[in-house]
Each structure stands twice: as C-alpha cells, then as structure tokens.
Amino acid sequence: MSIFELPQLYRDVKAEAQAVAAEVAPFAGEADECSEVHAPTLAVLRASRLCELMVPSAYGGRFERVDPLAVCVAREACMKASAHLDALLALQGIGSYAIALGGSEAQRRDWLPRVASGDSIAALALTEPEAGSDLKAITTTLRPSATGDDEFVLSGRKSFISNAPVADFFTTLVREPASGEGEEDDYSVVLVPADSPGVRISPSPEIIAPHVLGEVDFVDVVLTSDHRLGAPGRGVAHVLATLSVFRSSVAGAAVGLMEGALEIAGRHAAERQQFGRPLVRLGAVANLLADSWVDLESSRLLAYRVADMARRDPATTLDHSSLAKLAATEAAGRVVDRCVQVMGRWGLIKGSRIEQYYRQARPMRIYEGASEVLRLGIANRLCRDIVRTGTPSGAQY
Ligand SMILES: Cc1cc2nc3c(=O)[nH]c(=O)nc-3n(C[C@H](O)[C@H](O)[C@H](O)COP(=O)(O)OP(=O)(O)OC[C@H]3O[C@@H](n4cnc5c(N)ncnc54)[C@H](O)[C@@H]3O)c2cc1C
Predict the structure, then answer these.
(1) Residue 320 has pLDDT above 80, yes or no
(2) What is the rounded average pLDDT of the residues 186-201?
(3) E strand or H helix that includes residue 138
(4) 198, 231, 264 — which closes off a domain?
(5) 252 and 381 inside one domain
(6) Please, what's the largest Cα pairwise distance for the chain?
(7) Of the residues 35, 89, 367, which should be mutated to test ligand 1's pocket, given the most ligand atoms within 8 Å of the CB?
C-alpha cells in the first residue's frame, strides 16, 4: 500500500458516506439553518448504516473497535454536504464512546445497539456555564443520597450540549466531593437517561452556524451505581480517551468543509471574467486558490495520518489528535475566508452554500478544544518528547 493512498476499506466507507451525503444534499441548505433536529436528515442517517461506525461490532457496530480513520473519512464526506448531518453522526460516537470504554456489559448491551442503529440519540455533557476549557472547574455534583441505599443525587447545569433537546441519554462529567479532609474531589462519568426525573432541557442561545444545542439542568436526579461509566475518579481519563479518538475526526470534517468551499470558489474563478480574463488568471486570485489547496491537502494528510495513529493506539494519540484538529480547523478558517474573497459579492449572499461554510468553519476552532488550549498541550508534548528522546514523536517514519 502506498502511504499516500487510503486503503480500500476506507475508500469504501467514504463512498458509503458520500452516498448518504448525496441523499441529504437536496435539503442540506435548510437543515444547516436548523437549531432543532431536521427530521428528514435524521431519517436519512437512521436509514443508512453510518452510525454503526461509532460502536464496537460486539454491540451492533461495524469494526471490532471504533476506527478513528473510518470516522474521519465519513465525517469528511458528511460535513462537505451538511454540517447538520455531520453533527448528528459525530455525536453518536462522541456521546457513546465512554459506554464502550467504561460501561458495564449490561450498559453496553442496553444502549450501544440502539446508538449503532440511530434509534437512540447520544450526547456528551461536559461544559457548564462557568466551566468551558477548564473542565476541572465543573460544579455539577454527584453525592451519596441520604437514604444510603446505593443511591446518588446528581445536581448542576450543563451548557451548550449538542443534541440535548433530542438526546436519549447524557454521558455526563461530574464532580464527587472528597469524603475526608485533605483528599481531592473525584471526577467521574455517569450515564443519565434523558427521561430520568429531574432532567430538564432548555434552549441554548442560537449561534451563528445553527446547531442543535441545549442547556441541561439536573435537579436532584437520583442515580445508582449502575449509572456509573467506569470506576469513580476515572472521569477525566474517559473524556480524554473520547477526545483522543474523535478530535482527528473534527479535522476530517474541516477537510470536507474546505473541499466544498474550494470547489465553489474554484468554479467561480474559472467562469467569471474580469479585465478580459477569468479570475483565476489574475495573480492575486490564483494565490488565494493555490494557498487554499495547499491548506486543504496538507490538512487532509495530517488528519488521515493521525486518525491512523489513533486507530492503532488511541491511548497515546491525544496530542497528535489535537495537532490534526488545530491544523485543519485553523486552515478551514483561512480557506473559507479566501474563498469568500475570490467570489467577491457573490461570496456574501446570505444562505448561499459558501456563506454557510463561512459561518460553519468558525465554531470548529472553539468546540472540542479551543485552538489556544490545544496549543498549550501540543507545546508541552513537544518539549517533553524532545527532552526525553531528542525528537518530537511522530517524526519517526
Ligand atoms: C457548536 C458547539 C457545540 C458544542 N457542543 C458541546 C457538547 O456537545 N458538549 C459539551 O460539553 N460542550 C459543548 N460545547 C462547548 C464547548 O466545548 C466549549 O465552548 C469549549 O470547550 C470552550 O469553552 P468556552 O466556550 O467556555 O470558552 P473558554 O474556556 O471561556 O475560552 C475562551 C477563550 O479563552 C481561551 N482560553 C481558555 N483557557 C485558556 C488557556 N489556559 N490558555 C490560553 N487560552 C485559553 C480559549 O481558547 C478561548 O479562545 C459546544 C460548543 C459549541 C460552539
């Protein structure tokens, strides 16, 4: 296999996702302006087999373990057609990965097959009104109940949670206050069914690129130890493992967005004439297009390479996943801005595909790790590697 060629398995996954994307394309413009779930898009996703990519095969999924490279290429195809489709697909994995990782056999059997079929909608609840990048500042708390009967009480508010209004369950990061003096609080992950008494959903503010978001209040929700995903204190590890697998797929989605934007701008530059020649023959416009293609292809190579690393060993790839996400989402911001510039006033038409891409690129640099926060982790890893081994890891081809 050439290292520059995607193996057939992944080309097949991409073709499968492209076929799903083609079904959504006729109404993607409308779906991408929805802050509520767009029923026809969800119906297409459910009728496809794409959600199987998000679950291990023992529980109705496609591959033995969730394959980050398959997720990456599927999201690339979906995002190019519709951000709404991409988000629905991605959240099935992001919201359920902790179940595959730390859930009991009963929890896996109960939830994962329904996630794989798209019948149950997943959500991951980390962010709070006062805790975004600084996740250890969360105040949503799990405390033993006064009854003492293996019962716990969950209280707090999660904010900007994708899929919240339609989710069937919330994989939720909680704080467990230390029981003894001088001990540290634990962070744990619990699975909260959305129909639990005390779970209340309200709308989040609408954002520039509409997204299905909600605020989730947990008002004295009673849980038992059966709702835990993994041992107490494993919460942050589960969140990092989820990000390690799925951050490279945000890079894949950014690649899809860049490709879509560049196709529109490239066609415009080839067809529109100014000063007696096509725009592409005006040097400054050629620069915009050429630099964008470089950004696209270099982001694609890094995304595939890192997703492949995460496929082999997800436990050690968080920093590289961050690297791919940082590179591709920052590139997407540059590329879509250049594409709008290439199109002149035609890049500014409200609701046009290029204008939607322009808005959709922006949140990608904030969610699942804002760029500045990713840079901190990446730089730390770089220096640690150099001090330990003399070279950054990943340099050894
Ligand atoms: C479309 C969308 C979907 C989302 N979906 C979910 C979801 O499903 N589940 C969920 O839990 N959350 C979700 N979020 C929330 C998202 O994870 C947070 O927005 C993100 O973690 C950043 O947190 P914040 O917005 O509070 O920004 P802040 O943490 O307040 O950061 C503000 C700015 O300060 C910078 N900054 C922060 N800390 C540092 C630092 N140490 N060094 C340097 N710079 C720093 C950041 O980079 C950023 O530029 C979603 C957000 C969006 C926009």
Answers:
(1) yes
(2) 98
(3) none
(4) 231
(5) yes
(6) 82
(7) 367
Q: Is the pTM for the entire model greater than 0.70?
A: yes
State the distance from the centre of ligand 1 to the C-alpha of 27, rounded, in angstroms. 30
Q: Best of 91, 133, 135, 239 to mutate for ligand 1, by most ligand atoms within 8 A of CB?
A: 133
Place of tokens 């069914």: 193
Specify whether 69 is located in the same domain as 144. Answer: no
Q: Supply the mean pLDDT for the chain.
A: 96
Is the pLDDT score of 135 beyond 70?
A: yes
pLDDT digits (tens, 9 = 90+) for 2-17: 567 899 999 999 999 9
Q: How far is the CA of 258 from the centre of ligand 1 (A)?
A: 22
> Which of 86, 127, 140 for mutating ligand 1's site (highest number of atoms within 8 Å of CB)?
127
Angstrom distance (rounded) from CA 2 to CA 245: 24
Last residue of a domain, one of 206, 231, 256: 231
Give the tokens for residue 352. 């046009």
Q: Which CATH number is 149's domain given? A: 2.40.110.10
> In which domain, by residue range, is 61 found?
8-120
Give the angle 211-213-214 at the CA atoms, nearest 5°: 165
Residues 43 and 86 in one domain: yes
What is the reported pLDDT for 149? Answer: 82
Q: How far apart are CA 365 and CA 30, in angstroms?
A: 23
Provide the number of structural domains found in the chain.
Answer: 3
Helix axes 235-271, 83-94, angle to 10 degrees: 160
pLDDT category at 182 given cuts 50, 70, 90 is confident
Res 249: pLDDT: 97
Q: Is 133 in the pocket of ligand 1 (CB under 6 A)?
A: yes
- The verdict on the CB of residue 135 being under 6 Å from ligand 1 is no
Question: How does pLDDT run across 85-129, given as a tens digit for each residue?
Answer: 999 999 999 999 999 999 999 999 999 999 999 999 999 999 999
